[in-house]
Design a protein that fits this description.
Blueprint lengths: L1 H23 L4 E2 L3 E3 L4 E3 L4 E3 L1 H4 L3 H30 L7 H28 L7 E2 L1 H22 L5
Antiparallel strand pairs: 1-2, 1-5, 2-3, 3-4
Helix pairs in contact: 1-3, 1-5, 3-4, 4-5
Amino acid sequence: MLVLLGFILAFHIATAALLFIATIDNAWWKNDVSSTDVWQTCYFNSSECNDETISGYGDCIKAIQATMCLSVIFCCLSFIVFVVQLFRLQKGQRFFIAGTLQLLSSLCVMIAASIYTDQEKNFHKNLHAGYYGYSYILAWIAFAFTFISGVMYIVLRKRK
């Protein structure tokens, strides 16, 4: 049981790290000239970053920013709730609150990555041709991890 608990905690921490990196790091879209995330665009030749390009994306980018921040918040809250429930739940009960928060985190990151995928053509029409960066890919991986973790919490029962 201790090994399972250690695996669950390590999995949750890894998931939170993926969410933090996907939200903060500047690599949702890359090309030869610049690297763009949901907050700013950085240019390789001048080591300069600005948010002028991002501010022109409209409300869609604000929705992406908000849902990515919410996913990180829900994931961290889920971890705290899980640790509290370890000590407070009676034997045989399920971790519904922690699981629900983790599923909300999964929903938020899925919404953010889906909006970015849908609006990619509108976002980058004035930039050079490019490709999705590793932060975008990490966001999709984090979606899968948070979903698996949320289901795992809901199915898991507290044992002695």
